[in-house]
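Quick look at the format.
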Amino acid sequence: MDIHELLDHMEAAVNNRDMVGASSILSAIETEFGEAAYGADHRYAILKAEYCYQNDLISDAVDTIKKGLNSFPKNYELYFIRAQYAARESDTESALASYYASLFWGLNSNDRDYLAEKMITYKKGSAVNQHRMNLALARLIQERMELEQYEEGLDFLKWLFFVLPSDSRLEYVSEETMLQFIMLEGTITEKAIFDEYTFRDINSCKWYHNSYEAFRNGYLEIKHAIRRIWFCLPPSEQLYLSDVVEKYSVSSALLAVIAKYSIPEENWVEAFERIDTFLQNNKTHLGNEFSRFAGAIGNMTQTGQIITKRDTPVKNVLTFERIYLNEGSICQDTNPCVQDPHTIAIVFCTNDELMERECLLYLSHLIVPDGMTLKVYAVWNAKGICQGYNRAMAQINAKYKIYIHHDCFLICPDALIQLMDLFQRKEGWKMLGVAGATAMTDNYCWGENNITNVRYNLYQDSCMATILSKTIRYDNKVDEAAAIDGVMLATCEDVKWREDVFDEWHFYDISQCYEFRKRGYRIGVINDDTPWMLHETTTKNDPSGRYDHYGKIFKEMYLDRAMAKPPID
């Protein structure tokens, strides 16, 4: 009797809950076919898993499902059984991840509606932690990568990222899954272009051990190097690309894929030409390949938006200092330093040397106004942004302070000149930013606003794309702001940050806007048609829902009590 006939009998036994008969048939199959049974018929893993499920053989069931998926990675029934097991073990996020996979692979089956209903019902009845949800999805994708099932893994991520409703996308789009997406796309591009033997040597997934954690630093360094060329930094800074492609043995295919997500689509043509010219001139091992692979990842014949090239000045003379905070660090109530009107201080909090280095690089190429001095401070070990900024403010003697994120790169060379001009005008601005809103919403999310009230002039590295965020109105050079985002807050007065309330990483910025307004200070958002910075927007999910926690505190303190309340949209 062949395995298919045996499985017919086993299916009947399992359906009739004849565990004795099912056990006997299972034993016969294992004796006759061994591990080969998994690849012979997908029903073997399904029936064996159901048998284990009914007999409480949890570890055997988990192992069976994994082996079944190794042979049949698109089998939705196996994912569905895995979801049921995870739910039974109260592993909510792993269960939901498997339900998603089951639905995706079962989209063309007669069970589609049933699978969707089960997934939705389970999701509604469960408390899902977004951070753990992301990790569960990343584990699922890594399984496919380890089995070299690259197309299967990428197809599933494309569905999650671009097909499912965007209002719930944060559940599955994060730094981890985005890195996996790029690794997979790079590897698939390599596989499509290179011959079999070359592909074995350059397979990007294998090079990084199928680990997004191993890929992260290499990806960031490559992305930063690409942008140095895009933003026309001096040739000495552009040589960084040569260093990183050699350091990480980057293939031309992977380099092209990373470049695609590092540069806005409207700038692809010119930016890719610059990268190709650099590679040719510097004789890297990619010099003769990049343009061919660039064409493979997008329509490189489209008309590109020309990037206005401004002469980048030589490095300015600045002083740089790290401020290390200790456990018992205490902030004084007032700034003990005399404010020097000839000094500009730029402050950011960080615990990441790679981000610190890149942020500092762009600051070192800003034009410093005549007669002024530029000082940069990186605050390490802060428990929250308010704490870090208060400690820095207490020991900096600069009248003008610019607070930025460590993942924000000031690409506008004359930004300091423009800021000083605005601060010194008769309008009396005391705080300025590059992103914000002219009216507040009735909740605590200023970004959920009427589009005519929102002001942006920066690039944002967001979900699988770098985009230029621009305002739709340019009525004034600066508009009165209700809220300014913390990507950049420039001030010419010192007001203590509310670390007594906002002691972590949320609502430090908007609360500071309200504190300034309480004192009668005027705040504005710069409304320029030229982007001032690039922000590498984080896609890490909030593990404990702290954003909403502090949002509710902010709303109670400032909106509900009408404390220096700005216009409500």
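Next, a different chain entirely:
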Amino acid sequence: MGHRSLGHLFIFVFFVVLAACGSRTPLERSGGSSGPGPGPGSDGGGPGPASCGNGVIDPGETCDGANVGGQTCSSLGLGDGRLGCNARCTLETGDCQRGGACGNGVIDRGEQCDGNQLGGQSCQSLGLPGGALRCSACSFETSGCRVPMCVVADLGDALGAPVTVSETFGAADDFASSCGNFDVPDSAFFWTAPNDGCFRFDTRGSPMDTVLMLEGSCSGPELACDDDGGGDVSSLIETELGQGESVFIVVEGFNPGEEGPFQLNIERCSGDREFDCFNGRDDDGDGLTDCEDPDCAAFPECGMRFENCFNGQDDDGDGRVDCDDPDCQGSPACPFPFEDCGNGVDDDGDRLVDCADPDCNFSPQCPPRIENACRNGMDDDGDGLTDCEDPDCSSRPFCARSCPRGDLGSELGSPVITGNTQGSSDDFGASCAAGADSPDDPFSWTAPTDGCFEFNTVGSNYDTALTLQGSCMGPEISCDDDAGGSLQSRIQRPFFAGERVVVVVDGFNGGSAGQYALNILSCDPEVNCTDGRDNDGDMLVDCADPDCAGNPGCSSTCPMSDLGSALGDALAVGNTQTQSNDFDAPCAGGGGSPDIAFAWRAPADGCFQFDTNGSGYDTALTIRPSCVRPIIACDDDGGTAPDSLIQLDVRAGQDRIIVVDGFSDFSSGFYQLNINPC
């Protein structure tokens, strides 16, 4: 079924027509058409309802045999002609005669729309939830008129910087990102591409450290993920999409529990084509709008925009005359200059002289340029392709291997991956093994941080050998047979963050193969006690790991007491002189002040003020999601100096840890904690 809905001008046929929606239509440029296709009610194949053919219009049918329910081409807004019924019991409108020429940019008799002209209609005006209404073959296309449950808003097909400004305060963690952290609130948006092309999604201008994802649906899969590709702490993804293709855009913070405001920008990729030549916009970002852009030269409405190569004038206004203009390359008036391969001169002006110019690749004056050595790590022929990447090396046996079998990213765990080497090829030799001919599986892996990491095959059911390679071409960095015990292998090695290796699971004896488990763990202790992750792979997270026993955030004194959801002045009063120093306040002048922590749960959505007005010393105030999570807010003298004050937006039921601290080392005294609506 190539076309979309027909009768959105008539609400009573809307749902039947919507059920006929299927594939996307080809791209329609303004001023032109994608060409003819089957009518909106044409039979696209497949069986109809079970009741189809009984002459009665049953549920799910718009017609049955000769019974078309009293409808006509005219009543459907399709002009004159004969309305029929196809074998799937849906209306057949191929014989309806429209009054105008579809694709002329004008809504003629019998057309619901034409090109970008929608006649003032929208998804909402047709009684649909929202989204982007489009035109396909001069009929309304409503597949974008939906708002999925997991999104904050449907952005339609809007472009701009920004398209929306929002925030993640109080949001749930609905999406897991491959390039961010766990337990981070996120906000999702639904967006539909207005045309075929490349689109750029970024969070530049956002005050928090963002992570940006593109998802295929509310339940995934993840299509792309980026942390800091936009520069500084902003995120950026560029991707190709087809007209009408929809994606879910997810924005979250980078750090566990991080919440905050953000800006979402959606623009066309730089260098893309001008998609609409009559909308007054620079669609492809090249500084040329509509008919000024050579992309629009084919449209008669744009007139003659090419250079006349014979008249001595700058016809297209680009500052280049006749043969100096790239439009004239290949013109009889401008013979294209080729490189003379033996005169030491750059004859064609491309800054490449003689044999360095591709024009001379087959000149007898220039020796053949091929990749001579396919294992030296060098680009011998200067074509930008090294060793086995170069087609010149395709016949070399060692370039035919499938390596790596997969990319493990920076994953840690027990196991990271499982598999079976039976049926795999023997591509690598292990220097610590007894013989060759054992099949092997290679995987690439990148160190997530500086530190020691362990690779082992514990859990495998055969005598393994394990090697680390610098790349698929070698060299071998480490090799082990049985250090893991019971014929299993183990390698420990220090890494730098971002260092990449190829991990090869091999067999000890010739022909050894079987099921394997590849485990990758940290050799270091739990390095971060507040990130919600098992850093050292011992299945103990943060404060549950004995490595964190001395961490202040894991102290049993946090919180000292629970304030519930109470509001008012002097909710807690006391003296910090008898307290220990468990927390730091980055907005204060020292880290040695005693402090006291309180648990509090928001009674309602809204802004609440936390302050120490009425205290007897120079206080500092911090707020965290929990005792072991990063600080959300910190203040020194925002209240009645030297008291502290923080205003924070929260959602009903959110838990917060409020810490009363001192400004300078050893500052302590009488404190008063007040919590009130802003």
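DSSP finds one helix and 33 strands in the chain.

See the schema section for token definitions.
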